Automatic annotation (TrEMBL):
Pfam families: Nitroreductase. Gene3D superfamilies: NADH Oxidase (3.40.109.10). PANTHER family: FATTY ACID REPRESSION MUTANT PROTEIN 2-RELATED. This is Nitroreductase family protein. CDD domains: Frm2-like.
Length: 199
């Protein structure tokens, strides 16, 4: 089992060349995403992670919202490159927008005052774990993904467009789809610079 996990971890890569032809029915992809988030651990079993799963035109709509927000801040002479990059994200089959429910965080802060300063940090941990869990689950199904962060630039648009609760704080968005081209080679730093082993 550990060898299977590590093989999957190595298979999970940032894939930018994504297409819309998923190898599974959309319903199965959605269920995979939901199951991965459900099984992701969280401090005090808070289950603070939330997700908005966008497919088809709704996925495209999200990237148009991002484009319009970036158009306001990116110089016109540079916007073509930015727009091309967004076209690449929109070419994917769907997106998962990851949120953390701040009502859960503040509720835990009130309930366990001694740990109040830690709950926002632990919430971020929960979000990262949920993102990685989904990424692994998609990789296992042969679906590529990449993770982006255009929050808080698009937070209000997302909340308004999809009626997202005000307490949900956007943390990241993951594009997923068929793999058009694999990831390139990945370099790793030396173990002795990254790890300390004490016996």
């Amino acid at each position: 089992m550990p060898e299977n996990y590590l093989a999957l971890a190595k298979q999970r890569r940032t894939i930018y060349a994504l297409g819309k032809d998923l190898p599974l029915p959309e319903e199965e992809v959605v269920q995979t995403i939901q199951d991965a988030i459900k099984q992701a651990p969280s401090a005090f079993n808070s289950q603070s992670s939330r997700a908005l799963i966008l497919l088809g035109n709704e996925h495209n709509k999200f990237w148009e919202l991002v484009r319009e927000q970036l158009r306001k801040i990116v110089p016109a002479e540079s916007f073509h490159a930015t727009s091309d990059k967004l076209d690449g994200f929109a070419a994917a089959a769907g997106s998962v927008l990851f949120f953390e429910d701040q009502d859960v965080v503040t509720g835990l802060q009130e309930q366990f005052a001694a740990y109040a300063d830690n709950f926002p940090i632990w919430s971020e941990h929960s979000s990262g774990i949920a993102q990685y869990a989904v990424w692994l689950a998609l990789a296992e199904k042969g679906i590529g993904a990449n993770l982006q962060h255009y929050n808080p630039l698009v937070d209000e648009d997302v909340q308004r467009t999809w009626n997202v609760p005000a307490s949900w704080k956007l943390r990241a968005h993951m594009n997923f789809g068929s793999i058009i081209a694999p990831a390139g080679d990945k370099a790793y730093m030396d173990d002795d610079k990254r790890f300390i082993v004490a016996k």
